Amino acid sequence: DQSLRAAAARHNLYIGTAVDSTALNDAADPKYRELVKSQFSSVTAENVMKWESLEPTRGTYNWAPADELIAFAKANHQLVRGHVLVWHNQLPAWLTEGVADGSISKTELREILKNHITNVVKHFKGKIWQWDVVNEAASDPWDSPSTIHYKGFWAQNLGEGYIADAFRWARAADPKALLFYNDYNLEAFGDGGPSDKVQFIYNFVKKLKADGVPIDGIGAQGHLGTQYGNYDVFQVSDMLKRFTDLGLAAAFTEVDVRSYTATVADSNELNPRLQASAYNHSVLLQACLLNPKCLSFTLWGVSDNHSWVPTWFTDPPEGLATVYDETYQPKKAYFQLKADLFLA
Ligand code: G3I
What we know:
This protein has helices at about 5-10, 20-25, 30-40, 50-55, 65-75, 95-100, 105-125, 150-160, 160-175, 195-210, 235-245, 270-290, 310, 330-344; strands at about 15-20, 40-45, 80-85, 130-135, 180-185, 190, 195, 215-220, 225, 250-260, 295-300, 320. By secondary structure, the chain is of the alpha/beta class. It has one domain: Glycosidases (TIM Barrel, Alpha-Beta Barrel), CATH 3.20.20.80. The strands form two sheets. It has an eight-stranded parallel β-barrel, surrounded by five helices. The protein has a two-stranded antiparallel sheet with strand order 6-7. The radius of gyration is 19 Å and the shape is globular. It binds ligand G3I. Ligand G3I binds near residues 89, 90, 135 and 254.
């Protein structure tokens, strides 16, 4: 067995992918399903566990797509990362519109959030290894104000206290699941030190721990781009260590490394952009392998034909972010990850 999952098993590391349920169930696209089974030991629902998907109409749950993914994972001896309980994106319209028009009060909103977390975590109880409890609560330096702050729908409506509440409600509903805070741009540093965003998240996670809030792990998403140059394995592992020194586990949860497609003539693995993509994938994996508390390394998508990047970054167009090309040929990044796993 020369798969990524076999190589990762040597280190007791779980290697995962985000799964697009439409592609997984597309009979005309059998290779996608075959690769999810054979190469990965963990799966994350790319969309079907998000609130808009689970409860499109208030009080009516649509569990089937998520249940199917969990059954698939069980059949293939894979662990499941639950994604995501509290996020400001992909919320159902009944919720955001109800808050906007005042028909849902702040008091009711807090109850709705508590019920959502409780219902969802109980429904999947015993089947989820790690939950992304709160996702992307911190702002970015380019937001206004540029000082890092708690951003988005939940902070605006409930204040930052929703974060501690969310972890407590999740723990009560499934005491065995590992509870994660998940965010992006934790890999980026300024002038060799941690970025303001990393420092902000570090401070609030530290405070959560000190207050006895049940948080078990930090998820670094790992959405990188080759246009930002080569990331540094010392900096990334220092970042992880800061968090694991607080007694937390860690995981890379959404790794992909995109490029400007207009300047990449082909998907030949000798293309410098794809070399750089492979290098940055490798930096994150090596940082994870260096830290005994780094539990899993999840890629955000299997292949370039099923990646969020080309639909999201269109001006200028970006893509080529995953480790398999559009025809499911493994790219340089795939072989680099495997080499890292064998050599570590
Ligand atoms: O399901 C509808 C479909 O009915 C409709 O016809 C189609 C037309 O636009 O849209 C479909 O919904 C899309 C959904 O993915 C499912 O494919 C949404 O438009 C699209 O915006 C959505 O994008 C997802 C994105 O999160 C939205 O926030 C991406 O697939 C998903 O990869 C991405 O994942 C996030 C993580 O959850 C959190 N971290 C960042 C990461 C990348 O943005």
